[in-house]
Write a structure and sequence with these properties.
This protein is α/β, with parallel strands linked by helices and about 325 residues long. Helix content is about 40%, strand content about 15%. α7 packs parallel to α9 and α7 packs across α11. The structure holds uridine-diphosphate-N-acetylglucosamine.
């Protein structure tokens, strides 16, 4: 059985769907701080059977021990954590507490339970700002905000843990820009409050919730001047996690792998694509660059292909279509 921390969250819930499709049993462990138990019922609708879950916080060793005692957990997919960059700047303690202390508590509970196989959610944010693109896993890391630092600290802890005890099998997955939703439109991304990522904002503008989108800068060295990112469909990411799990089952190894498409798409291209596939208008205005934004980011995906046999299959059309279907069906 696979333990999925943060399994009711955006990437966690989509990965659970893929785990079920691949024939894995799983138990969701979530404190619902940025998700809702209602997501579990939606997941049940998609997979056609009950979802096993336990409410709990990864910082609570007793709750963790309980979930390990109650289920024969062979591996953990660890998604639970806080993820808003701006919030992390104003609340660094919360970010270190949830993301670093929480991960340490989880590793401790795993060790007590004798479960030493872990897939960790990291982020391309750990790469320094001035990297040549595409960026590969051996590029130097440099972080500019507390959120990014918590990811890097946990990565470092995991690598020390693996050195201390080679029985640990660990896959650290560095996500580029996850987007889209399950094609059923039953689950998707539900940011609390004002979103800060591009696609949820595009969706809200298309739905008339916001009058227009602000494009942060059109003077980057890209073909149309707007920022470029490696947007990757959340169902592709979900498949990447199952591939990483399969890899760890077969190999006693520790790996750090980018999950992206290997292609950059500009902010304007996202807007144009979204308008075409949704039939909605997305008014926008150009405003100055966002502080600390990087211009161009996309992944070198050769290691994922080589080690995991994984490639992203879905294109930006599909990401926009599924994001809009989710928005239109659920969020006005
Ligand atoms: C942001 C975070 C990053 C995190 C990632 C995934 C920052 C500086 N970085 O990355 O740490 O891992 O989200 O959650 O916050 N854009 C606009 N207008 C908007 C919003 C975004 O033009 O209203 C542009 C941005 O300038 C960027 C692109 O869209 O070029 C993507 O932005 P976003 O979705 O926030 O992701 P990242 O900046 O890649």
């Amino acid at each position: 059985m696979i333990l999925v921390t943060g399994g009711a969250g955006y990437i966690g819930s989509h990965t659970c769907i893929e785990l079920a499709r691949a024939g894995h049993e799983f138990v969701v462990f979530d404190n619902f701080s940025n998700s809702a138990p209602a997501v579990l019922a939606r997941m049940e609708q998609i997979i056609g059977r009950p979802v096993v879950w336990q409410k709990g916080d990864i910082r609570d060793p007793a709750a963790l021990d309980k979930v390990f005692a109650g289920h024969p957990v062979s591996a953990v997919l660890h998604f639970a954590g806080l993820k808003a960059v701006t919030e992390s700047i104003s609340q660094p303690i919360d970010y270190f507490d949830n993301n670093v202390h929480g991960s340490i508590a989880l590793m401790g509970a795993m060790a007590r339970a004798g479960c030493k196989t872990l897939v960790f959610s990291s982020s391309a944010t750990v790469y320094g700002p001035e990297q040549p693109m595409p960026v590969a896993e051996d590029a130097p890391c440099a972080v500019s905000n507390p959120y990014g630092r918590t990811k890097l600290v946990v990565e470092e802890l995991l690598s020390e843990l693996g050195r201390s005890d080679p029985q640990w099998r660990i896959a650290t997955l560095r996500y580029f820009n996850p987007t889209g939703a399950h094609p059923s439109a039953l689950i998707g991304e539900s940011p609390l409050g004002t979103p800060s990522n591009l696609m949820p904002l595009v969706c809200q503008v298309a739905a008339g919730i916001r009058p227009s989108l602000q494009i942060f800068g059109d003077d980057y060295p890209s073909h149309d001047g707007t920022g470029v990112r490696d947007f990757v469909h959340v169902m592709d990411l979900a498949e990447g996690h199952v591939a990483a799990l399969d890899f760890l089952t077969k190999n006693q190894a520790r790996i750090v792998v980018n999950l992206g498409t290997g292609h950059g798409t500009s902010v304007l291209e996202v807007i144009r694509t979204f308008e075409r596939v949704s039939g909605q208008r997305v008014p926008y205005e150009i405003v100055p660059r966002r502080d600390a934004d990087i211009g161009i980011s996309f992944a070198d995906v050769s290691l994922a292909r080589e080690l995991l046999g994984w490639v992203a299959k879905r294109d930006v059309d599909e990401m926009c279509r599924d994001a809009w279907r989710w928005q239109a069906a659920n969020r006005g």
